[in-house]
Amino acid sequence: MDIKELKNSYKRLKIDIEKRLEEFKLIWLEGNNEDIFIELAFCILTPQSKAKSAWKAITKLKETGLLFYGEEEEIVEYLNIVRFKNTKAKNLVLLRETIKDENGVIIIKEILDKLESPIKMRNWIVKNIRGIGYKEASHFLRNIGFGSKLAILDRHILKNLFKLNVINEIPKTLTAKKYLEIENKMIEFSKKINIKMEHLDFVLWYQEAGEIFK
User: Fold this and answer.
1) For burial by CB atoms within 10 Å, which of 100, 115, 156, 182 has the most?
2) CA distance 83 to 64
3) How much is the mean pLDDT over the chain?
4) 146: Cβ contacts below 8 Å, ≥ 6 apart
């Protein structure tokens, strides 16, 4: 893939991308704490798993009520379609405890609202929520409308950044330092080709996945 092909893909996808991003923004603007929690829980399930499988598992857990009240051993029964189901079941339970107030009420929206910027939000999430790194935190924030300056550096994105010569190699591991370094390169690249960061992510992901999802 070259820049010309990328821009042609963007022309075809732009309307669908904008529609999807508007839907994401409404989750924050019109949604409640449970809606935000669901998006964060989804991103806990995504590492090394298919996004559609993670979302299917979250939907089932939400329908049964186990996402909000279930114990590890109950939740894990619904995670057979994602990798590392035992660890992720534990992380979902810990997530609930991390973002509750003294009365046991989920307050993730209030926590994030006090942090002023997406960068500060991401730093807090990475520091405080088990099972979430920079990629997952960026993914979550994009999915609630705060992704305009964040990169979601999954294997699809990295592969295409390499093809486009934005990066010299695909790193075997992504340290925090390396993640931010590549993110900055992607930001500069988005400016150069005049495609917004949150749009560019979707276009690059589409090249591998063939769809616009979450």
Assistant:
1) 182
2) 21
3) 94
4) 28, 118, 121
pLDDT category at 116 given cuts 50, 70, 90 is confident
Given 85, 109, 154, 196, the catalytic residue: 154
The alpha carbon torsion through 67, 73, 78, 84 (nearest 10 deg) reads 100
User: 154 catalytic, yes or no?
Assistant: yes
* Helices 155-163 & 176-193 angle (0-180, nearest 10): 50
pLDDT band (50, 70, 90) for residue 70: very high
DSSP 106: B
* Residue 135 annotated in active site: yes
Cβ neighbour number for residue 194 with a 10 Å cutoff: 8
Check 85, 88, 109, 135 and give the catalytic one: 135
Report the alpha-carbon distance of residue 79 to residue 81 in Å, rounded. Answer: 5
Q: In this prediction, what percent of the chain has a pLDDT beyond 90? A: 86
What band does 140 get if pLDDT is binned at 50, 70 and 90? very high
The helices-and-strands tally (H runs, E runs) of the chain is 12, 0
- The whole-model pTM stands at 0.93
In angstroms, rounded to a whole number, what is the distance separating the alpha carbons of residues 88 and 170? 26
C-alpha to C-alpha distance for 88 and 93, rounded to whole angstroms: 9
